[in-house]
Amino acid sequence: MSAVDTAAPAAAPTEGGPLPARQSVIGGLAWLMWRQQRLVVVAWLTVVVLAAVAFPPLRSAMADFIAAHHIAGCAEISLDPHCQGEGTQQAVAAFRARYSPVLTGVGLLLTALPVVIGTFVAAPLLSREYESGTWRLVLGQSVSRAQWVAAKLVAAALPAALGSAALMALYRWMWQPSANFVSGVAWSSRQFAVAGGPLLIATILLAVAVGALVGGLTRRVVPAMAATGGAVLALQYVLATVRPYLWPWRTEVVSRSELPNDVWGFGQGFLTGDGRRLPYDYCSGASDVTACTQDAGVTREFTDLHRMADYWPLQGVESGICLALAAALAGFLLWRARRGA
After folding, report:
1. In terms of CB atoms within 10 Å, which end of the chain has fewer, N or C?
2. Which candidate, 59, 63, 93, places its Cα nearest to that of 76?
3. Residue range 299-322, pLDDT digits in tens
4. Cα-to-chain-centroid distance, residue 297
5. Alpha helices in the chain (DSSP H)
6. Alpha carbon 97 to chain centroid, angstroms
7. Which UniProt keywords apply (predicted)?
């Protein structure tokens, strides 16, 4: 009988008995990630609960004010016949004075979340371990470097995605009664464009990927945090700059001041008789603006615009860009980890 035939069969794990080594390692890694990220998870839960408690009364108060003053769909200047009643403009102005700072402030806080998460959560994710040397202890427990990095990314990205999704939904729900018109916080405003749709989730996931990669490259906490904050701010600025051009827009022969409140006019200028486009400030430095426009052959104004139907396509394209960048950065980080870098 051969040695193979006489070898004792491997013992199968019994119920309540020890788990296979690989399963124990993965379970231990998951437990470690929870231990390291539990304060972040608690912070997300706290913020979401506070928003869930504070936003419904605000929404109810705004809806009651709008109903009591009959200003639904009205702006301070509106051509809608039902918005022409006595006191309508004053009521809209009063609503904006009372509630618009809240809507704007919450939107700006949510817009700042990617920088906060990238700087204070994602940047130290790997850099703190490298700087303190604790990563060697983890990798000494039969865990590969790629497994460790992947677990770190998931532990930061999962609560970030779920928490930001909840905050986005609550903020959009609170904003809805006064959308575009009464509050003056339009769908195209910078704070709502980020905070009121899936772009918030995508931008935060991008910030997590940026912070983790920068931390993995620098291996120092403070430089990683500084570089991540600057990088995420720069990305947000670039995205805001190119946002109007991510989906086909319309050009209409109309002044921006004549546009309805639910239309986003992002560019304006002059048209000449032969169809040339001139910037709006073309004659701003001339001593005689009228003579300047006549000499240039200006015949009318134009505005490049998006209508509200473009909101979701714009959200989809920009969110896709952020998620693709996040996946690329995370993939590069994992590739480096597999190579032992």
Report:
1. N
2. 93
3. 888 899 999 999 999 999 999 999
4. 43
5. 3-6, 21-69, 88-117, 123-132, 135-139, 145-175, 190-195, 199-218, 221-242, 289-296, 311-338
6. 27
7. Membrane, Transmembrane, Transmembrane helix
